[in-house]
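call fold(seq) -> tokens
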Amino acid sequence: MRPCPMTQYHHGVNLACEIKLTGVTPHGRAFVWNHKDPNCPYHHAVLTGTSSAPPMNGQVFAYGVNTAEVESSSVSTPLSAPSVRQFETGATRDADTGKLAYEGFLDPLVLKRYAQFMHRHRTQSDGTLRDPDNWQRGIPLDVYADSGIRHVFEWWLVHRGNPMPPAGPRDPKDLPDILCAVMFNAMGYLHELLKEKANG
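ret:
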């Protein structure tokens, strides 16, 4: 899928439509799209030459050809997305197809709450302050699994409407704390797996 060409001009950042080039048919180029903005006029106007309401999600259209004709045609030559993006200002950049979209995959609010949880737990039971990356030095997988499963069980209890488990000085204080504890153990476990793989 690639962004609707109108993304920079018509849509809000989070309302970009996507269009998939499915190939070349005897009638022309075939497309399938996913509208995130139901008012987007671009695909229908450009692909069919009209200005009426855009097709529904998942419908297949081609230049001047109706859905039945396209669906009954064999797709022969796959089409690739453009390798260069051009913006309204005239500036260009290489396409971001295949690149990791950290801005979309991650949420800064979640990461900030997790960092607050981690910072609060830097103080050890003997009063000393551990380094922020102390966990990366290596903790056995069994320890991560035991702790992670315990916190998942706490999450399950609270999700079912039960009260928060009694909390000791170092135990989760609320549901976000429980989720952060689950994240810590899952990330720590994954860190050990990736480290082992990298060291091969």
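The chain has two domains: 2-101, 107-198.
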